[in-house]
Write a structure and sequence with these properties.
The protein is α/β, with parallel strands linked by helices. It is about 50% helix and about 15% strand. The protein has helices at about 5-20, 25-35, 40-45, 50-65, 85-100, 100-115, 120-130, 140-145, 185-195, 205-210, and strands spanning about 40, 65-70, 75-80, 135-140, 155, 175-180, 200-205.
Length: about 220
């Protein structure tokens, strides 16, 4: 094999991975199943895509070895190939924010405008978690909570929050978290809690980042 051929084959392989994520829906799917494995139906419902489109996107990701499958009876479940895929998506996200001004504009207009206080870091949360007045809220859907959550976190999906406010003490500080730093669930939860007079703040990132940091995960 000549040097030129080696380079061409390597760059083609690199480009193949880049092509696999060159679609906003496929990036969303990767972030979604970073929370835990899901079947096609569940992914389609969560993303608002048709079953046909969801299946097509998953096949592209599978061919690029970014996702793996597991069969249970007649149902096929998809999961990320490994934690390197999470790191890849996170690096892509960070690089885009550093290079594309539109990302910062969206963050400023949506996230920063709704944060009464600065989001709390993982380190600060660990320090304050032993305080009985601090309650960690996992506002993701319950199936994501079941596949892994911050130890001691209380599961209250955003859709159920208003109906379950009576469960929450007004003497507590609530720290909400969801799928990641650009997931809107925690932002909306904090907004609703604050509007009802509760003290609330959000975690600066989400469950995948917590797990990648080597912090304990409860199932």
């Amino acid at each position: 094999m000549e040097g030129r051929e080696v380079k061409d084959r390597l760059y083609e392989a690199f480009a193949q991975t880049a092509k696999a994520v060159a679609n906003p829906h496929r990036i969303e799917i990767l972030e979604l199943i970073a929370q835990g494995e899901r079947c096609v139906d569940a992914i389609a419902r969560a993303t608002g895509l048709s079953l046909t489109n969801t299946s097509a996107h998953l096949q592209v990701l599978h061919r690029s070895r970014l996702v793996e499958t597991k069969r249970a009876g007649t149902t096929v479940f998809y999961r990320l190939a490994d934690d390197e895929v999470v790191r890849f998506v996170n690096h892509l996200r960070d690089l885009t924010r550093a290079r594309v001004g539109e990302v910062d504009r969206v963050i400023k207009d949506y996230f920063d405008a709704r944060d009464t206080f600065e989001p709390i870091t993982r380190e600060d949360l660990l320090e304050r978690a032993s305080n009985q007045d601090v309650v960690i809220l996992d506002v993701r859907p319950k199936e994501e909570y079941a596949q892994g959550h911050i130890p001691g976190a209380k599961s209250i999906p955003l859709a159920s929050l208003e109906d379950r406010l009576e469960e929450l003490s007004r003497q507590s500080l609530f720290v909400a978290y969801c799928r990641g730093p650009y997931c809107v669930l925690a932002v909306q939860a904090v907004e609703r809690l604050s509007a009802e007079g509760y003290s609330a703040i959000r975690l600066e990132d989400g469950m995948p980042e917590w797990r990648l940091a080597g912090l304990p995960v409860e199932r």
